Amino acid sequence: MKLDLQEGENMEETKIYNAEDFQDAIVVDTLKEVIAVLEERGYNPINQIVGYLMSGDPGYISNHKGVRTKITKFDRTKLLEILVKNFIDK
Questions:
Q1: Which residues contact residue 33 at a Cβ distance below 8 angstroms, ignoring those fewer than 6 apart?
Q2: For residue 65, what are the domain limits?
Q3: CB-based contacts of 34: which residues, under 8 Å, 6+ apart?
Q4: Which of 3-7, 76-80, 86-90 has the lowest mean pLDDT?
Q5: Is position 13 within any domain?
Q6: Ramachandran quadrant class, 5 (left: phi over 0; alpha: psi -120 to 50; beta: rest)
Q7: Stretch 53-79: mean pLDDT, rounded?
Q8: Rounded to whole angstroms, what are the CA distances from 82 to 40, 52, 54, 64, 77?
Q9: N vs C: which end of the chain shows fewer Cβ within 10 Å?
Q10: Is 40 a domain residue?
Q11: CB 34 within 8 A of CB 47
Q12: CA distance 57 to 72
């Protein structure tokens, strides 16, 4: 297997990653997947996600392709935090 380094990259340097940034990226990817599945199933993703966030009832999220299980792995407060953060950053 050959690794392609970008010009100027040095494999000897230590890179610092923020674990919270990784977690946020996972939440964003999960939300995108949930939205796509809800749309695929004919649901309004805004109504369904808001219903889930407000009530805590996972029944608002389709179990198609396992997205209900994926979204319920995250604390609803964290989901809301990410949604607001992404709204403000745009």
A1: 65, 67, 70
A2: 19-89
A3: 45, 49, 61, 67, 70, 71
A4: 3-7
A5: no
A6: beta
A7: 97
A8: 23, 15, 15, 23, 9
A9: N
A10: yes
A11: no
A12: 10
Among residues 85, 80, 84, which one has the least CA distance to residue 49?
Answer: 80
In a domain, 67, yes or no: yes
What's the pLDDT score for residue 17? 74
Residue 72, domain member (yes or no): yes
> 3-class SS at 9?
coil
Determine the pLDDT at residue 57.
98
Domain count, the chain: 1
pLDDT at 3: 44
Taking the C-alpha atoms of residue 70 and residue 90, their distance in angstroms, rounded to an integer, is 25
pTM reported for the whole predicted model: 0.78
Q: How far apart are CA 25 and CA 23, in angstroms?
A: 5
Place of tokens 């809301």: 80
